[in-house]
Amino acid sequence: MQHLDVTTRTELEAAAFRRLLEHLDANKDVQNIDLMILADFCRNCLSKWLVAAAGERGVELDYETAREYVYGMPYSEWKSLYQTPASPEQLAALEARQQARKDVKA
Asked: What residues does the SMc04008-like domain cover (predicted)?
């Protein structure tokens, strides 16, 4: 994508990000813990990254507003409607994933 000008590249990246949010919204059954196990990020991470990007540009964006954007509704509402308790297997897989990351960094 180096051949693209900065504006076009930014527009494409923004469109891809919006598509990611649409995909996550259409797949609410995919839990955050599943995303963390497989990809080491989740919807909350995306929210934090938005807040950080805003801060880097001197734009005020609070975490709850960013989460509402990512989740498509207030987080508390999403959580009560779609979040399920993590299973022992999910928790073990997440712990193993996090340990593997620590081992690689060591």
From this structure: 30-95
**Rounded to an integer, what distance in angstroms lies between the CA atom of residue 37 and that of residue 91?**
9
CB of 94 closer than 8 Å to CB of 37: yes
d(CA 30, CA 38): 11
CB atoms within 10 A of CB 84: 9
Residue 10 lies in a domain: no
Tokens 């960094």 appear where? 105
Say how far apart CA 25 and CA 55 lie, in whole Å.
25
* Cα–Cα distance for residue pair 18/50, rounded to 1 Å: 12
d(CA 62, CA 79): 19
Q: Per the confidence metrics, is the pTM higher than 0.70?
A: yes
Total domains present in the chain: 1
